[in-house]
Write the structure tokens for this entry.
Amino acid sequence: MKKKLSIILTALILLTSCSHEVNINNDTTEKVSFLRGSHFSVGNQYLLKNMDLLQYIDLTSGDMSWNPLCSKPNCRHDDDSCAAFMLRMVMNPFIYKDKLYYFMWYGNDVGVEDGLYQADTDGTNQKLIFKPEENEFIYNAWFFNGNLVFAYRKKEHSDILYGDLSHLGHTYRFYIYNFESVTLFYETGLIYNEEFFFHGIIGNDVYFDYRARDSYFDVPFGQFYEYIEDKNSEYWQGMVSERRIMPLGQKDPANPKYETVKEDWFFGVLVISGDSYYYFNEDMEFYSVNTRTNKKALISPPHDTYADILQVFDGKVFVMTFDKNNDYFGSYYYENDEFVKIEENDYFFLIIFETEDYFFGYFSTSPTEVIYGYFSKTDYYSGNWDGLIEFEW
């Protein structure tokens, strides 16, 4: 990031595919994770934070302090001549294969079109990769093995009263970018109270959870939260909640073909590792499903407590468990057909991302105190909590 910065927009190149054929990457050499919503990301080398300024940490430098993404001499980082300042409002910034990517929104405020951009890692040589339709706004993005899945939404109906979200309706368009072309693969109609959880890609299929109402529901005035808490209310009875597998390359994304998964995993709680996916159901049974052989296997859970978090890191499936009072019980990883408990500890360390040698995340030392930092993988597996190295998040 030592090149001289300038914000000169180069010729705009739209890479939107005309057909709906999709060539899926299966590149696991470089990973990207989006952290804490849309403002943080990590790749093989760089951790990015986009709050007041676009800042980075070079994970290979040994220096864990944040630096503005700017090499302009004597820059005060307070006007649009500074890349770190100009890009302060972008969403989902990340670095992949020595290029910076980000979604510009409200770009008209700085005289730039909204959309997905590519730039050099110092913010120079920006070019527009994808331009959304008018009045569409970036909703979210997910990264799977060299593929960027992202969604734009358009507000179609809004009549919000006192925070009553049941009156808010959107349409969504979902795209996949394999870093060669962008392809639309799913387009919703007008839906309300929507939730999407994208879990990953296996082969040519995207796995995700979908929850939404397909019609407007008028919650009685002042009773929105009562309806939300009552799972038997008309509000929930009108919700469509499904676990879906959607093949990419749809000929008609507005009327897509998809498979509704019968497995009863907790909504939003599923992880993918290789050709298999793993989940707990509501009876606390732990399953694996191999998509290549269609073999489903019941795995003995570590104990009969509540499993709340599933993750995949270091080639292993990690499980964090809690008792019925929601108190932390223990952390395990699943390897060679068995659960292995991490050494005893009173509070959990939630892994957020990893490098080759380290786990990064946050460590809960009490119900109200959280410390951000990282462990060597050796210290983590051995339960050496004194090996935690703190850094400012």
The CA atoms of residues 168 and 310 lie 31 Å apart.
